[in-house]
């Protein structure tokens, strides 16, 4: 008897839930005519960003490529001819491998690599999904409008010599014997 | 042997260990900075702290620095369980980090950084100090080492290596109080042949590899292997690191048998010759690129109908390759040699025959009297570093040399060093004198030192020693007695092995067969006969023939003259076996493959008939024994039967001026193609002793130039006056020898040429072995 009661209860409960949802407001949108509204922290297409001054942020530290669980990132670093500013000579993300886990963004010490809320990356061949630097690099600062790693690093770059970075005293005089 | 206890865990230790060593051996992760097994403990960083456990009633526990404490049986410490010690370490690390720059992402040491590891280990994760950081100016240190001064934690390891271990004096701790920094007085390249090791000992990114910097990659991404240095006969253990099919860096591989912790700069930077822009990477026949596999092209080339072949191996190719080539020659009924110069062949073989009790580097370090004949630094740098260890302890080092040498140059500072500058033709006589003094029991001076020593070591440089001198040195060793050890720096990494596979007089035979037209085709693997000692004869002989097939990985003169070029693998790109100067058989493993395939020398066996293959196997067996040493292991020493040696005329004592070799420590056949290292090649000059110049009636000063004439060839070079050049000799570089088509000991006529008064004074004055500081004016081209 008790069993029967449960059984009827479950069936009516399920049907009523179905009925309720049949008339509820829709969450599905008519994509692609209508675009979904994605949160800022969505992990979509990955970009490389620049500093507020418009310089490439990535210093080719290889941390993102090392942390990437699917080995989607290939980098070769280089140094600018006339100063010690490091940059990625080659930066490739193979989006056929990327699982959009966002670990690269988390690992990046310079806030260069960032995920965006763009997911429309359809392509007709695998090769097209391997993005090189020209397709990754965007001319804006992404989610961090102010951050500039080289201001905080100790290495000298054009326009910032040793001792001119954030929190740095001018270099000591090597030749002085005075206290 | 004994046992001590850390956190109640028993830890075994070896005699001579300190507590830190013992803990490391037991894999207990004690932080440390200033301690280094080769450099010893100074107890300055205060990081390796542990707490003692009182053994007696009333004793208080103390916090001690474990690196300065000799391990003793039954000692007890608290490390992880201690309340105080980890705090001490953590505070110290935090203190070191207060002014450390935020450089990890752009620092080449990152990921392979002792400071990073220790900081993480003690748990110092966030900077609390928000004051201003002190900064230090960087210094430009030439093409090999990069300096970023802010990263220093003043552990003094670099200075302790450079000054105390390697006895250098152009780099040190500068400044006072807490403004100490580590640099040279002037910008520019280091004088020491071992400077690259400060990169290895520095626990931070203060000193980094400048060549690696250009093609930087995180070290954990590198493909590495246990390899052997191919740039001299010492055979140091090295670890090449490569990525994406290119070599990125070379570091010493720790080992107990040969070089222990360090390598010389030649060993560190010469392998970058594999990345030279002109390296042959394409199979070419008659200058035209071919797409077929290298071996197929070789097979075709060897099958041409009108060819009568000769085959040449090389001391820089490994044992198996030379054996395969020897058997290939047997298949082709062709003469074979692994030497390009008859004189070098005789000298090398004579030396190899006498090297059966050669001292290891450790034996040299522990010796209490060393006699060096020839300019050792310029031929076998790490062997000389071992000599410096004896010198450092005040043990007498006696040296007989003919041209300027880094070791001889230390005579002013090192009181126990006695150097005698003398023409090579006189060395035999000097050694005979020593022998007669020793036999007649009236020893004084050098003879007395050698006689009274408990573990005397005699070292020679085979390439520059007349055969009579090599024999005299052996005789001296025999007279001193069984306890003495005799070793020779040989011309190439595998000269010992090459000597085993070449018959007596093989190089002369090959040369004369070429000259007489008995053979009209030559297969050369890994050798460059056209720029060696007999370069002129080879060039003439090879110009006549139609088939010159060259297998090599450098753009040598012989490769340029070849009709068929087959690119081969550099040492880090292949497996193989070298035999070093002691007869130590050591194998090396491939670290990486290039993107464009090159011929691996081990593939050459594919050219042999099955008979010949079997012969290679059995010969290998009889030469090396059954057990092939694994890469990275100490290998085993072989004692081969005495080699038959041909005869060759040596230079005799004449009344004129003799030409001697002025080497430098970064010089070697392959090293010349390593752009950065080669950019330090000293300017060509002619070295002459001021007193001798005066005796010849030449008035010379630093702006003078001398014209050398040998066999009708002339060459004018700036003069380098140096008291380190023997009387009766002038010293010139290998390049000048090649240009003059001269041989060691040839008689030369000197005439003063026009003065170069406008030229900057430094250029010719710099003693020849000193790299011209910070000078890249020769654009990095090879000498
Ligand atoms: S999102 Fe994840 S998988 Fe994709 S590149 Fe970054 S780390 Fe790799
Ligand atoms: S982690 Fe950031 S800075 Fe480092 S290589 Fe990746 S994108 Fe560049
Ligand atoms: S430069 Fe490196 S090795 Fe030298 S004291 Fe500083 S941290 Fe130590
Ligand atoms: S001493 Fe010789 S074998 Fe050792 S690293 Fe130097 S060149 Fe290589
Ligand atoms: S390692 Fe012991 S005090 Fe530095």
Please provide a written account of the structure:
Chain A: This is NADH-quinone oxidoreductase subunit I. Chain A: It is a peripheral membrane protein. Chain A: [4Fe-4S] cluster 2 binds at residues 68, 98, 101, 104. Chain A: [4Fe-4S] cluster 1 binds at residues 58, 61, 64, 108. The complex is a heterodimer of chains A (179) and B (783). Chain A is of the alpha+beta class. Chain A has a domain at 43-158: 2-Layer Sandwich (Alpha-Beta Plaits), CATH 3.30.70.3270. Helices cover 22% and strands 16% of the residues of chain A. Chain A has five helices and six strands, in the order αβαββαββααβ. In chain A, strand 2 and strand 3 (86-94) form a beta hairpin. The longest helix of chain A has 21 residues, at 2-22. The model of chain A has no long low-confidence stretch (mean pLDDT 92). In chain B, helix 10 crosses helix 17 (495-501), helix 14 crosses helix 15 and helix 14 (424-439) runs parallel beside helix 16 (467-480). The longest helix of chain B is centred in the middle third of the chain and has 16 residues, at 424-439. The model of chain B is unreliable at 761-783 (pLDDT under 50). The chains are: A alpha+beta (179), B alpha/beta (783). Chains A and B meet through strand 2 and strand 6 of A and strand 6 of B. Strand 6 (168-171) of chain A pairs parallel with strand 6 of chain B.
